[in-house]
Write a structure and sequence with these properties.
single chain; alpha+beta; Tetrahydropterin Synthase, Chain A; four-stranded antiparallel sheet; rod-shaped
């Protein structure tokens, strides 16, 4: 694999001054020769002008957060990262590579989660080029490579986790965002390292059930929420009944036999667990009549 080689070429300002001096000398010599009708003076001027034309393409600039990869007749020679005006062998090809941070948002992909439920998912990937040689020469098009591999990693991640957690310790796409984002970032690092790309951040930007099952899944979520709420209410009511019986016994307010305790527990549970306010019924007689 090709690795980036850092090079520092000739100062471009100095080279530009020399080239301008050559051009001025060539023009002046040609002018003197033309005035004196001495074509012998024109020949060196033509040579100097040709030399100027050949050397001028060697000048190039490097912008901040940019790299210029240099190749000579198909051979990689190095990369210039330092901003400024530079000069190199004019026969070298200079390919610009942006080193700035970039954002990429995947399409909304339709995939099956770990329970084979169709879901729609999308992600945002923040990345940048860290090795210009790998980015240019190890993959055909590093921008397209990042896009394709990001969607591939997202599909693989979505198929490994369920949309909702149905058991303890289960990582779900909807509730464990931090763990899911870390898993996506790790998968992208493994896939994009060969392209000279660094993944700065990867996070889920869109997550939803597919339209064809969205209504059914909403009903299931509502049912699960109702069951969980009922369970909490029942647990709290049982605790309150237990506390009430213990307080009555501790303070010796009333002595309840088993049947009266059962009636009291039934009444308290109805009051505490009912969705609507209860209407009291006053019993003026005996429980046994």
């Amino acid at each position: 694999m090709l690795r980036e080689i850092s090079v520092k070429p000739t100062n471009g300002l100095l080279a530009a001054v020399i080239l301008m001096a050559l051009l001025a000398g060539g023009v002046y010599g040609f002018y003197i020769g033309a005035r004196a009708n001495d074509f012998g003076l024109a020949i060196p001027s033509i040579i100097v002008g040709t030399l100027f034309g050949l050397c001028l393409p060697g000048l190039f600039t490097v912008e901040p957060n940019e790299g210029k990869a240099l190749t000579l007749f198909g051979t990689y020679k190095g990369t210039v990262r330092e901003p400024g005006l530079w000069w190199v062998n004019p026969f070298m090809s200079k390919t610009a590579v942006s080193l700035r941070v970039r954002n990429f948002e995947t399409n909304k992909l339709k995939v099956n989660d770990a329970y084979s439920n169709p879901v729609e998912i999308g992600a945002i990937v923040v990345w940048r080029v860290v090795d210009t040689a790998e980015a240019l020469f190890e993959v055909n098009d590093y921008v397209q490579y990042v896009a394709v591999q990001s969607e591939s990693a997202l599909r693989a991640l979505a198929s490994q986790h369920p949309y909702d957690a149905h058991g303890t310790g289960e990582i779900a796409l909807s509730t464990n965002q931090d763990e899911v984002n870390k898993g996506l970032a790790k998968a992208l690092v493994d896939r994009l390292s060969k392209a000279g790309v660094e993944v700065i951040e990867a996070r889920i930007s869109h997550l939803a059930y597919s339209p064809e099952i969205a209504a059914a899944m909403l009903q299931r979520q509502q049912a699960s929420a109702i069951v969980a709420a009922r369970q909490t209410i029942v647990e709290g009511a049982v605790g309150m009944v237990e506390l009430a019986l213990a307080s009555l016994k501790e303070r010796d307010i009333v002595d309840l036999d088993g049947e009266r305790k059962a009636a009291m527990v039934s009444n308290l549970l109805v009051v505490l667990c009912s969705e609507r306010s209860t209407q009291p019924v006053v019993n003026t007689g005996s429980l046994y009549t």
